[in-house]
Specification:
Number of strands: 2
Helix content: over 70%
Strand order of the largest sheet: 1-2
Oligomer: single chain
Mean pLDDT: 85
Order of helices and strands: HHHHHEEHHHHHHHHH
Strand content: under 5%
């Protein structure tokens, strides 16, 4: 059984990686400045480099693809953790309002330090995720305090409270953004839509530390997520230090969400859809679900950004909007299935 599960996971990961590579190929070659495969390969391998090709590949297209992959991976993992802890298949950073809380904190950062901190400089790039972390943690604390009933977490109440809190955080975010000067407001508006438009290598470098440490910590606790599916009391009976493990996993998921929101805005539904598809593909063990969920998140962001750039050309649709167009019907489908 273990071999078959591992083999199936390996096959899914290989297929997903192939799909992502195809999407990366189209993202690199298509656009206002079209390039052939030969041009791309020569540019990447530094064979007879040309300045215009270097500019398009290394300054515009490749950072956007890499940042999208990082954010998709982070959101896929975070969504899987939230669904595992709450034992609620509808849990998602966007649905629970965590995205909105982190987004509100980042917009407050933009507003408070406008004109004094370069948001695309190293100080701004490294500080924004910390503000997002504080906002995401505050949002989750508020949501959990309202969603508990009789000392237990009510999964249905959690969704309702999350939607309500997310709406409130969104209203505060909109109010603060309207108080900005026109230049900063334009930047905030693009960011709020969930866009990879301003991606650069600084964003990627600032995102990497979160991805190198947190997913490994989560994966090493995949067995804890498995035990939590048996119920909190049963998990306690099996020796799980429940509150400590839940708090650590929640903090890890909020860290991934906050870093993602800081660099690309609130992109919803990735954390909802990716774990569902992963469970259908590789079963119920989180040591298999987590990497597959991350890979599906990568595919969703890379393909979603490609759709936003090409299907609506010469206009460009933010990747967050593309994912929402695909995600809303899936969310409705899950609601109907859960009722049945």
């Amino acid at each position: 059984m273990r071999k078959s599960s591992a083999g199936r996971t390996a096959a899914v990961l290989a297929s997903g990686l192939l799909l992502i590579l195809v999407a990366v190929y189209f993202s690199l070659t298509y656009g206002n400045f079209e390039m052939s495969v030969k041009d791309i390969v020569k540019t990447l391998l530094r064979i007879d480099p040309q300045s215009e090709y270097d500019l398009v590949v290394f300054e515009f297209r490749l950072p956007r693809i890499v940042l999208g992959a990082c954010i998709g991976f982070a959101l896929g993992i975070a969504g899987c953790v939230l669904q595992g802890i709450t034992r609620n298949g509808l849990a998602d950073p966007g649905v629970l309002g965590i995205n909105a809380g982190a987004g509100m904190a980042v917009v407050l950062f933009m507003f408070l330090f406008q004109g004094t901190v370069n948001l695309t400089g190293w100080l701004g790039v490294m500080t924004m995720p910390l503000f997002g972390l504080a906002g995401g943690f505050a949002a989750l604390t508020a949501i959990y305090s309202f969603a508990r009933q009789g000392g237990r977490l009510d999964p249905q109440r959690l969704i309702l409270v999350g939607i309500a809190m997310g709406t409130g955080f969104g209203a505060v975010t909109m109010y603060v953004s309207l108080k900005m000067n026109p230049q900063d407001y334009e930047m905030a508006a693009v960011w709020l839509s969930g866009s990879l438009h301003g991606a650069n290598w600084k964003f990627v470098a600032a995102m990497l530390p979160w991805l190198l440490i947190i997913p490994l910590v989560i994966w090493l606790r995949s067995s804890v997520l498995d035990l939590l599916q048996l119920g909190e009391e049963n998990a306690k009976g099996l020796g799980v230090a429940l509150e400590r493990e839940k708090n650590l996993l929640l903090l890890c998921s909020i860290g991934l969400i906050s870093a993602s929101v800081a660099f690309a805005g609130a992109i919803a539904f990735v954390g909802l859809i990716a774990p569902h598809l992963a469970r259908q593909l590789v079963g119920l063990q989180h040591k298999h679900i987590l990497p597959v969920s991350g890979l599906i998140g990568i595919a969703m962001l890379v393909i979603g950004d490609l759709i936003g750039k090409t299907v609506f050309a010469p206009a460009e649709l933010a990747v967050g909007v593309v994912i929402s167009i695909l995600g809303v019907p899936y969310f409705v489908y899950l609601l109907i299935r859960n009722r049945k």
